[in-house]
Design a protein that fits this description.
Layout (H helix, E strand, L loop, with lengths): L4 E2 L22 E8 L2 E9 L11 H4 L2 E3 L2 E5 L5 E4 L1 H14 L7 H14 L11 E10 L12 E10 L7 E5 L17 H16 L4 E3 L11 E2 L2 E7 L2 E4 L10 H12 L3 E4 L4 H9 L5 E6 L3 E10 L2 E4 L7 H13 L10 E3 L2 H4 L2
Parallel strand pairs: 1-3, 9-10, 9-16, 13-14
Antiparallel strand pairs: 2-3, 2-8, 4-7, 5-6, 5-7, 6-18, 7-8, 11-12, 12-13, 12-15, 15-16, 16-17
Helix pairs in contact: 5-7
The structure holds pyridoxal-5'-phosphate (PLP).
Length: 355
């Protein structure tokens, strides 16, 4: 791998980012590498700036785009850790493969993150609820308006300080008309088209007073899939239930981490199909139903209300709920306040971490 060239010149300083919406403020720098003639070239870190693309660039027309979302944390001991870099890297390449895009070598991915995070370390919020959101992504850049697989790509990483994603527990509705993903499609890939296609049903739900939809399966419109940018978890009858990785949902890093923590706590875990009828029955039998979304941006998003058809059900969100316990454990590992037995924290090398 050629060395990454670093041009740190910039005039931007860290401002108060806490009051701004998620994903609005870029840090000072970005990573960029170009793919052509079958190889990656010219990898570099430069001041954050706009791109120049041909209006013929294939990504603008046919959606050949893939992204990741991951976070870096300022740890209690002054080190900086990227959470589960390896798992994000693997998922990035799985998505790229599905979208006929070239793999990114592991050393390029890791080195780019190490260098970029070290350079923009001052932008990582030190507050308890703060972190640095990182967005590795790839776009097809060949300038040709005919439908084809691109031969040229950009791989980039941009970052933005992040705080709490949702200010309060969510109201969601079971979506029984629109579908996010079907078997054999791209549901497991983090490709741009999945998100664009989800906007319209989500917008309709917002207009009806909900924060998000709970997607259901494409065949029966009955089995829960996921929600927005989160995997779904339910805690009913002392079992933590989450839909299986069937190929239509994202293999969430938060999902996997919470399942691991729950198992280590001796909690029964079931990765299985869960229908909205089962959830409705539990509510109607007067059981406590915990429901929450799990994802990098939101971490854990408690759900307060689930609308099923024209009925609204209230979930259990009291302070002793399991989700808060798991959230706390995850937080403590990420911040270095508790041991990291699963080696989830990728520590940014010290000599880079100091400017
Ligand atoms: C569609 C979708 N499902 C689930 C998730 C949760 O995945 P993770 O925990 O890796 O962020 C995300 C966010 O990346 C997402 O976009």
């Amino acid at each position: 791998m050629d060395p990454i060239l670093i041009n740190p010149q910039t005039e931007r300083v860290v401002t108060d980012t806490k009051s701004l919406p998620f994903g609005k403020v870029p840090t000072e720098h970005m990573f960029i590498a170009e793919y052509h003639d079958g190889a990656w070239h010219n990898s570099r870190i430069v001041p954050f700036e706009n791109l120049t693309l041909s209006p013929f660039a294939l990504c603008l027309h046919y959606g050949q785009t893939v992204f990741e979302g991951m976070k870096a944390f300022a740890m209690d001991n002054g080190q900086i850790a990227v959470f589960r870099l390896d798992k994000h890297y693997d998922r990035f390449n799985k998505s790229l493969h599905r979208m006929c895009m070239p793999a990114v070598p592991k050393d390029l991915f890791t080195e780019a993150i190490d260098q970029l995070i070290a350079l923009d370390a001052d932008w990582i919020p030190r507050d308890a609820d703060g972190s640095l959101y990182m967005r590795p992504f790839m776009i097809a850049t060949e300038d040709r308006i005919g439908v084809k697989v691109s031969d040229e790509f950009l791989f980039m990483i941009v970052c933005s300080p992040a705080y709490q994603y949702y200010a309060k527990p969510l109201k969601v509705k079971i979506e029984s008309r629109f579908v996010r993903a079907a078997e054999g499609g791209t549901g497991f890939a983090k490709c741009g088209g999945n998100y664009g296609a989800s906007f319209y049903p989500t917008q309709m739900a917002r207009e009806a007073g909900y924060d998000q939809v709970l997607w259901t399966d494409s065949r029966h419109h009955e089995f829960i899939e996921e929600s927005g940018t989160m995997n779904m978890m339910f805690y009913i009858d002392n079992v933590l239930i989450t839909p299986p990785l069937s190929g239509t949902i994202l293999d969430g890093v938060t999902r996997d981490s919470l399942l691991t923590l729950a198992k280590a706590n001796g909690i029964a875990v079931a990765e299985r199909a869960i229908s909205y009828h089962e959830i409705m029955k539990a509510f109607e039998e007067g059981k406590h139903v915990e429901a929450f979304g799990a994802g990098t941006a939101a971490v854990i998003a408690p759900i307060e209300t689930i609308a099923i058809g024209n009925k609204q059900y209230t979930c259990y969100i009291e302070p002793d709920a399991l989700m808060y316990k798991l959230q706390k454990e995850l937080y403590e590992i990420r911040k270095g306040l508790a041991p990291d037995p699963h080696h989830w924290n990728h520590i940014i090398p010290q000599k880079m971490a100091q400017r």
